Amino acid sequence: MKQLDMEFKNEIGKTKHMRLNYASQTLDETTIKTAMQTIADLKMFELEAVNPYATPIKAQYIERTVTPIFGGEVETADVKVTE
């Protein structure tokens, strides 16, 4: 699964990410830019008079690979029941 990572600058210049796990992987640049600008314009996440998503910077898909080192398998032990 790829994750859509949208990067913004807040109103005081700090970087803020909005990551979506189930976003379509066929979105084009125009669609994402428009959505990010809409998020910025709505100021719906404003906290203490600071919009954390004020300026769209970039967007990218992130794909993660998990490589187990140990664990994860369910171990079963031979148990004898005596009465």
Portion in strands: 25-35%
Helix content: 10-25%
Any low-confidence stretches, pLDDT <50, length ≥5?
none
Q: Please provide the count of β strands.
A: 3
Tell me, rounded to a whole number, the average pLDDT: 89
Q: Characterize the biggest β-sheet.
A: 3 strands, antiparallel
Structural class: alpha+beta
How many individual helices? 1
Q: Report the order of strands and helices.
A: EEHE
| Rg, alpha carbons | 22 Å
Describe the global form.
extended
In short:
The chain has one helix spanning 29-42; strands at 2-9, 15-20, 55-63. By secondary structure, the chain is of the alpha+beta class. The relative contact order is 0.28.
Please characterize this protein's 3D structure.
This protein is of the alpha+beta class. 17% of the residues lie in helices and 28% in strands. The protein is built from one helix and three strands. The chain has one helix at residues 29-42; strands at residues 2-9, 15-20, 55-63. It has a three-stranded antiparallel sheet, covered by helices on one side.
